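Hey, can you fold this one?
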Amino acid sequence: MTSKFAQILLATFAVSLGALAQTNAAAASPAPASPPAASPAAVPSAPSVTGTTGTKVGTINIEQAIFATNEGRRDFETLSKKLEPKQAELKGMNDELESLQKQLNTQSDKLNDQTRANLVKQIEQKKKTFERVRQDAQEEAQGQQNEIAQRILQKIAPVLVKYAGDNGFGVIIDTSQPWPQGPVVWQSQAVDVTKPVVDAYNAQSNVPASTSSGAARPTGTGSTRPAGSTTKPATPPPSKPQTTSPPK
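Sure. Predicted structure:
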């Protein structure tokens, strides 16, 4: 998963949990007669469940949870099919570029200066066009991926909070980003609650399991690049929870 996409997921999840925590707090006590004005820059506080006295510490891979839900698998598979025509278009443009580049490499010494210059100019123009189309397609695909992820995150938040309260957890830490980008240096899979939270979400959503094979994962349109280009394609999110290792 690109770092930008991961940041959007984590920010959205923090807002979801923060809003849920405020709702729980409001339900537990009456509102003050004159509430103080909210600060626009306030950061949502950690979620809390009224009456919970749990002390257990757990972890959850939020990225993996999104893609593991039946709803996530369904919607990302639908998006993947929707992006196939654009991927085919980009492949065609890339194949044409490779053919022109091969022609230049193999016939350069046989071409006169004007013909060679025209061919080089044609390749450069097509590269620019390809990069523009690829970038636009990648941004559009990323936006649609974000929309799906944010929608599911909004609904996972209360499921996670309820699970934590029902099972005595006082803290649950996200492990989507491996150490050192993330806060967890090492974890035991025994404390990971990703699967039970996903199972609870699936039961609540009533979305049937996908019949297709393979883990759900966003499909971008940046997997094709022009010949000779050093631009790296977007990296899709992992299909399995990341295992972090302690520093040596």
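The two ends are 26 Å apart (CA to CA). Let me know if you want another pass with a different chain boundary.
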